[in-house]
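Course assignment 3, question 2. Fill in each field.
Student: A.L.
Task: Predict the tertiary structure for the chain below.
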Amino acid sequence: MFQVRTDLAVEARELYKEKQKQEVPGVEVEKEEKEHYTVTRVRVLDSDGENNIGKAKGTYITIEAPALKKADQDLKDEMSKALAKELSDLTKLNNATKTLIVGLGNWNVTPDALGPKVVDRVFVTRHFFKAYNKTDDESMSQVSAIAPGVMGLTGIETSEIIKGIVEKTNPNLVIAVDALASRKMDRVSTTIQISDTGINPGSGVGNKRQALNKDYLGVPVIAIGIPMVVDAATMVNDTMELIINDMKEQSKTGSNFYSMLQEMENEDKHTLIKEVLNPYLGNVMVTPKEIDKLINDLSIVIANGLNISLHSGIDLKDVNKYLN
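Answer field:
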């Protein structure tokens, strides 16, 4: 069965609307336009919504900033503040909250290294609280962090590692950061998704493992992700759409042919593209050529957002100094 690969709830909703020509039953959508970015809140309300877009019941917040690929420091700071606000509103954080930050992914594979890079840059404080036998502080909360790697490196399921840490350290909240997959190239590295439903490690590259969620870990799990890859067949399909539309506009002869291509069902086009790609390189995942810089910049954006949302006494000036 045809299925476009995407981890973004906003895209799953778009796919449903494109196919059914109506809004998604069981799903509520709220959109907020800002000067440099757009916030879309998708709320899956019931089992109908879950079945229609393939996402668990809960809230999915998407922050989209097209300029984020080549952002200056001001935009990066603005995105960190936006992330911090949405995260604080979603979780009702306070200085007594004990948080475990999990950086999912493989630090040896650049497009999959977002989580570990974020962990490198978050301000961990649990050891201070333990050393001074404190439960809360007026300027910071208790934060621990781990980048558990992937099973190919450790021989252990990521979920097993995280479950063991949660049982031993008893956090009130787990925040998991991971690289995601998108159905559109223009959303790669420009979109941040926050959800309160947990996450499936490895889903960005089609390698789903045991879900990290409240049912499994026993504590609420917030997932933060940025799409860093796109399915090759999906990208070719979107490119084909643009070419067909352009050719149809420019050419009077052969317009019937272009109309025929345009009217093909997405399933047929996707199947055709996969068949063409398969003898040469299969259905690979594609990532931008400047991925090293993007991962570095975006990990700072997320880490800054986490730092200022988790620690009330810290602002962007402090965290920028800390990171540099």
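Instructor remarks: The chain has a mean pLDDT of 85. The beta strands are 27-33, 38-44, 58-64, 98-103, 142-146, 173-182, 191-195, 221-231, 285-286.
Grade: pending
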